[in-house]
Amino acid sequence: LLAAYDEAYPKMMRYFTDSQDGCINFLNDLKGINKEWVKLNDDGSWDINFGIGNDQEIADALGIGVETVQAIMRKLVDYNFDINLDSVYTDLELLQTKAEKANEKLIELGKTDIRFNFNTTDIDSLDKQIEDAFALYETFRNEDGTINLELEGAKEVQYMLVTLVRQKQELSKPFVMNVDASKVEGELGQALQLIKDYTTKKNEIEIFKVNGDVAQLQQAQMEIQGIARGLDLLPNNVKIALGLNDGNVQEMLDKIMNTNINVPAGLELDENSLNAFLQFISTLSPEVLVAAGVDSSLVENYVAEEKVDEGNIVEFEPKDTKVQAYLKTPKRGTGYIDFKVRTNEVDNYIRSHGGSTTGSSNGGSSQNSSSSNKSSKTGYSDRVRVDGTFHAHANGTNVGIKHDEDAIVNELGEEGLIRNGVFTKILGGMRKMRLKAGDIILNDKQVEELEKSGDV
Question: CA dihedral in degrees (150, 152, 157, 162; nearest 10)?
Fold first, then answer.
């Protein structure tokens, strides 16, 4: 590791400078290694064509890391070197940088007033931008149907369109592309690699169509046919595991395999079948892959499904007979009831007829019939203890009047008196009555209920 660092360090110092001299040093070194990558023209300009995804090869040739190569490429773009970013270039960030510069140039040329967003993660936005870029691309088309890249601004539109398509491909990338097929054993691993190759080749076809490269488009379509045949020849058990045995999926593969291809003559693979099979690939979720036999450790974001141990399930029928019997039985409880007796209207009535009020009592509580004269005020509050439902034969010492007193009875109806455990109905209208300590007064409602059911 130290030896590799010592070897790369001098080159890093040569390539990363405060001016474009570092970029020139990089290009000169590459020119001496492979003239197909870099060529210095007689007019001093550079032809830079790094081909399809040759980042790693360039890095190995120079003895530096691939990340370093891509960083230098971005510097080349920053210094406006014209790099031919061909096909499915590996560094999307570099494409985006170049596309942004191309967009600015097209605005300056008056070719468009749209500012494209090449970094958006919104698929709908990308579709709209791709549509706009294609419309702009059409303005550079010759009468024979080819794009005239010699026209000013044509290459810039091409860069923009390729970048937008690549960004959409990246966002729509099927999950299976994250699985290292080389680590999956047997024919299942072979199947996954074919599926990944199909996805890559389908993306290349989209880019080649934008670039108008007929030869590369013909080659890519023939290769994807070969991939389809490989998938068709897989063993049935693998097809079933991945869903490739589905009738609709098989129909897609048949159309791809059996189409005669001649791109220059306009004979190409059916676009709907190509897209439909790619959509099928997108359905291969982590759960599907693990169920098919892929080791879960190779599948990112896979969460094992919780399973119930069938052997530990106990079936039972709830028996609630005793509970229901308990609920049907009347309940008795012990507690306290707070109540306030208000005798304002009674006192006013007595005064209006020439009488006087020294205290009053009535059975105004809905739960308790007793009252006691606490003071000469027209109303008072009290708390009495009750035990279950009140019965007329109960001994009244716990809720009875605390001392002898005169009180108004029958204000709202005929009330009742319980004295020494004996009930007596108080007949007649409202009147004053002498009550003794321990007496209990039942209000008219309680008397009515007592006469009806014998219990209040």
Answer: 40
pTM (whole model) above 0.70: no
DSSP result, 370-397: -----SSSSEEEEEEEEESS--TTS-GG
DSSP per-residue string spanning 334-360:
EEEEEEEEE-HHHHHHHHHTT---S--
pLDDT band at residue 83 under the 50/70/90 scheme = low
What Å distances lie between residue 40 and 37, 149, 194, CA to CA? 11, 21, 40
Tokens 């990338």 sit on residue:
173
Token pair belonging to 180: 């290292």
Do 176 and 195 form a contact (C-beta atoms < 8 A)?
Answer: yes
DSSP 107-176: HHHTS------TT---HHHHHHHHHHHHHHHHTTB-TTS-B-TTSTTHHHHHHHHHHHHHHHHHHT--GG
3-state secondary structure at position 38: strand
CA distance 323 to 325: 5
The one-letter amino acid code at 67 reads E
Q: What is the pLDDT of residues 377-411, one digit of tens each?
A: 333 334 333 343 333 333 334 567 888 888 888 88
CA distance 174 to 154: 32
Q: Has residue 365 got a pLDDT over 50?
A: no
**3-state SS assignment for residue 84:** strand
Are the CB atoms for 205 and 271 separated by under 8 Å? no
Q: Give 314's DSSP letter.
A: -
Taking only the tens place, the pLDDT of each residue in 420-449 is 878 888 887 888 888 898 888 888 888 888
